[in-house]
Design brief:
Length: about 425
Amino acid sequence: MSAQLQKSLGVYRGTALLMNIVIGAGLLTLPGLAVKVAGGSALAAWLICAAAASPLLAVFIILGRRYPDAGGITSYAARAFGGFGQRASSLLFLGAVVFGLPSIALTGGHYLATVFGGSAHIYAVALLLSALLPHLMPGEGAAKAMAWIASTVLAVILVFIAAGFAGLPSAPPATPAAAALPFDPVLAIAPFMMLFFAFTGWEVGAGIAEEFKNPRRDYPLAMILSFAAATALYLAIAWLAQSVDLAGNHEAPFVAIVKPVLSAWGAIAVALMAALIIFANLAGAVWGVSRMVFGLARDGLLPFPLAEARNGRPIAAVAATVGALLVVLLADAVFHFGMERLLGLAGQNFLILYGIAAAALVVLARSVFDRALGFGVVALAGLLLALQGTMLIYPALLVAMAAAIGLFRRRARRPTSSGAVN
């Protein structure tokens, strides 16, 4: 009998967990980087990205409430495209998180190292290991802890946003605010792929649908509420980033945003806030990714021991997920891959996964609306990916690997099995 996950999520806990998964490094760095790239068009760039992400979210809502499975997007691909679709989406997903999550940990590490000294990688490892703690709690303790963590993070972010708005009248920028510059549609589109990383996470959250007590009702509500809350926070901070003088500190805009109110203590406060946000983000992401690892192992695509669930909790999958991320962190400490490259590869893979989910919706459609939505998202993802150039080599290699694995499995089984093999 297949192991089953504990049904511990309702609307509140589900929304909190999704916010922990989504809100992280993007909130801390991207508002400043968007101003660096787009100037006075940065806020418009965020609005464009939110609008483009909305139909993508709708795809996951429809599929998640209809097929609540820990495999998330890989289970949708399996239903629509068989074994190859499941293998390809699995490798694309794992190929995204194995670079994206260490980059998130490093974001927190850099904030802490800037203020307190030391190695950003050591701080990143500590943050990643601390993300294990909520998953070790018995019963529904993990879900309750994630809800409390999300509430605390939201309260802290709102305090910092309020401090930023309070500081605006007393601290006019030394140079004209970016918000005063004219709107440029070309600049508004320029940071799209970078900002899109801030709107990833719901595809990771698709894997938690199985743990909702009433997935048909509560999962869509949690997805919508988390998207609305995250978008509101992004827009508020983006507006502040355009309205203050960042003084060249685009990678850590919160320092400039809260400096007029918190003065010398601002940098320390921001570093501690960053550590809290990254901890919550990593804990939520490990939850979502480990559930997909659990689902893949249950389906036979990963070693079966990873499909073990103790009292409804996939401890083995959680440990394997964190272990893989630690390996990448240590490799980056030696080879210095660069956060920009890691985040770019992760964001690109996630966009491809959105396209795969939309294509699965087209195949599994139960209405004209489903099919139209799926076609629209596939076209949008294809248009954006066409601009990526040689960056597409990485996901192409992963898809080729999925095909090679399928071919190897067919040849290995042919002498002993006359049945059809995916």
